[in-house]
Each structure stands twice: as C-alpha cells, then as structure tokens.
Amino acid sequence: MSTNYDVVIVGGGPTGLAAAVYTGRALLKTLVLEKQVPGGQIALTAAIDNYPGFADGISGYDFAQNFLRHAERFGAEVRIGTGATKIVPEADSSFTVELSDDTRVSAKAVILAMGRHPRMLEVPGEQRLIGYGVSYCATCDGAFFRDVPVAVVGGGNSAVEEGHFLTRYASEIHSIHRRDHFTAQKILIEQYMHAPKVRPVWHSVVEEIYGEKEVDAVRVRNLQTDETTEIPVKAVFIFIGWIPNSDLVKDLVETDESGRVAVNELMETRVPGLFAAGDLCVRPIYQLANVVADGVQAAVSVEKYLETRK
Ligand code: NAP
User: Fold this and answer.
1) Domain 120-238 maps to which CATH number in 3.50.50.60, 2.60.40.1930, 3.40.50.2300, 3.40.50.300?
2) Residues 160 and 237: beta-carbon distance below 8 Å
3) CA max distance for the chain
4) pTM for the full model?
5) What pLDDT, in 10s, does the model give residues 160-171?
6) Domain topology for 4-117+242-309
7) Would 4-117+242-309 and 120-238 be classified into the same CATH topology?
8) Catalytic residue selected from 56, 62, 101, 141
9) Phi first, then psi: what are they for 2, rounded to 5°?
10) From CA 61, how far away is CA 249, in angstroms rounded?
C-alpha cells in the first residue's frame, strides 16, 4: 500500500466521497479514510426523498454504495474501518496523517469530512439503556418496536422525519418537545401531524428514562406547569441536534463555540492545504445536496491549491 498521496480525505460520507469523485477525476492520488461504514449517517437512512434528481427516492444504503463505486471508479482508494488519529502539518507544507491501524501516510493536502454525531439528552437512564430502547436512529432501530408505544424527543427536521418513519411500526408516538410547535419543514410537519399515531407532548422535557434491562417509561416535566408525568414507552428516540466530529483538528483549525470548523467559501480552513467540508463545518443549512456540493468545492480547491504549489 502506498504511503504518499496528493490528497487524504478524512471521512467517507457523501461529502468525502463526492470530494473523492472530483479529486479522482482530476487524477490526484486520493485516499479516503472511513472508520465505520461508507456513506456515513446516510447509509443508515431508510429512504432519501429530497436529493434532487432522484424523483422516486433512493434508499440510504443504495445511495451510499453508488457514491462509493463512483469514487472508486475514478481511482480513489477507500479504506474502510480505518480512521485518522492525528494530522501533523510538516515544514514542507505537506501533512503526515496518523492512522488508527498505527501506520501513517503523507499527503500534499487534506480534506476534513468527518461529519457529526447525535447530541445526547444527558438524563439518568439514557447512557445505560442505549441499545435497550434508547436510540438515535429510527431507521436503524424502529423495526424492533412494533405495536408498542415509543417516545420521540426534539422538534426539528430529524425528530419529525424520523418520528414519521416510526409510524410504520409503533402503536403510538409520544412526540416530546420543549416548545408548542415543531420547527421542521412545513411539509414534514404536515405529514407527521396527520399521522393518527402521533401524540405531541408540548412544553415538555424528558427528565429520566426508566427501565431495569430495557426502557419501560420516561418521566416528563411540563415546563409551564412544572408538573411531571410518567409515560410508558418501550423506546426513546432522541433527535436534539448534532455535535461535530472535530476533536481531531480542534487545535489546528478555527472552530465556533459548538466545535464546528470555520471555512471560507472555498472550504479552506486557516491552515494552507487543510480543507474542510460538510456537516463538520459552519454551514447555512445541512442538507444532503449542499454537503455534497461542499465536498465538490473542497476537491476543486485542492486541485487549484496543488497547481499553485507545482
Ligand atoms: P435541530 O434542527 O438543531 O433541532 C434540534 C431539536 O432538538 C430542536 O427542536 C431543539 O429544540 C431540540 N433540543 C435541543 N436540545 C435539546 C434538549 N437538551 N432537550 C430537549 N430538546 C432539545 O437538529 P436536527 O433536527 O437534527 O437538524 C439538524 C440539521 O439537519 C438541520 O439543519 C436540519 O434542517 C437538517 N436536517 C434536514 C432534514 C431534511 O431536510 N429532510 C432531515 C434531518 C435533518 P429548540 O428548537 O427549542 O432549540
């Protein structure tokens, strides 16, 4: 296996793989590091209905596999199960990237595309019951909870979309949100609110998740009345936002208060040769189409950057 690359892309989700299609087509020697599954979060999504050009929708798995094949067709090497553990800028303006398999590679440029992971509620019972009813992915775990009541926490696009997905399986969905309305896109809210199984629980927060071996109930506090109630549920699906996976570079690049990487419109970070794109970054919206576009922009910027270094 080679150890010298024109570009190393950290993260093999849609952003990283879109970048790899473009760097591959530009004949740059490209390595993509993906420590879990190619496609990242999107590979776990049941159906993608809002990616322009896919009029009938596409499953997340198929979408991810297409991205992978596309990147590999143009010569990108995709290492699955291997992550980056350290990125070291060198005096000659290249980077040494240390890998989770205790090897290292050298790159003339690096694209950061590590994405983000779900935020936790941080209430008693949550951590202990992950995998036993506490979940952050309805499309992954929803089918385990057929004909039983479940709770969904949050009021943004994720909560409403994933909650709607759960209407296929659960007997009822207690949709717990701290406001008196959802803030998701209108079309998503409409579909969700029309589903007969959905029971909004407004002005409310989860204070504790009960259950010895698996989830039995949640304790919910109404923020207006201060009243607490127990809702019997077999699962709690939590969608209260995301945390960027920027630990790897927090001492290298500029981040905002929530850890999102600051980039300009060319996807440049403050370090020459180090680019970042997609969910990891401060972006105006976090839609699949625009994080893919970010990956494309980062790749084109890398190409131009390497031209200037020749
Ligand atoms: P989000 O928009 O940040 O929404 C987070 C939700 O969780 C909000 O309702 C928030 O309530 C609530 N929340 C935050 N912290 C909480 C806490 N500690 N306890 C209780 N509730 C809490 O996150 P998201 O829905 O995951 O969406 C993230 C981004 O991805 C958005 O830009 C979204 O548009 C995009 N996305 C798009 C799609 C799509 O287009 N199909 C699907 C999924 C996600 P407050 O409003 O009161 O803060």
Assistant:
1) 3.50.50.60
2) no
3) 67
4) 0.83
5) 999 999 999 999
6) FAD/NAD(P)-binding domain (3.50.50)
7) yes
8) 141
9) -70, 160
10) 29
Assess whether 147 carries a catalytic annotation: no
Ligand 1 in contact with 155 (CB < 6 A)?
yes
Closest CA to 60 of 79, 41, 78: 41
Asked whether the CA dihedral 260, 300, 50, 75 is positive or negative, the reply is: negative
Residues composing the chain: 310
Q: Which atom of ligand 1 is nearest to the CA of 157?
A: 25
Distances 292 to 29, 36, 150, 171, 231 between C-alpha atoms, Å: 20, 19, 33, 36, 40
How many whole angstroms separate alpha carbon 108 and alpha carbon 273? 7
Domain ranges of the chain: 4-117+242-309, 120-238
- pLDDT tens by residue, 251-305: 999 999 999 999 999 999 999 999 999 999 999 888 899 999 999 999 999 999 9
DSSP-derived letter for residue 196 is: T
Q: Which of 6, 137, 180, 281 is catalytic?
A: 137
Per-residue 3-state assignment (H helix, E strand, C coil) for 25-88: HCCCCEEEEECCCCCHHHHHCCEECCCCCCCCCEEHHHHHHHHHHHHHHCCCEEEECCCEEEEE
Cα separation, 32 vs 16, in Å, equals: 7
**pLDDT over 80 (residue 216):** yes
User: Helices (H) and strands (E) in the chain — how many of each?
Assistant: 6, 19
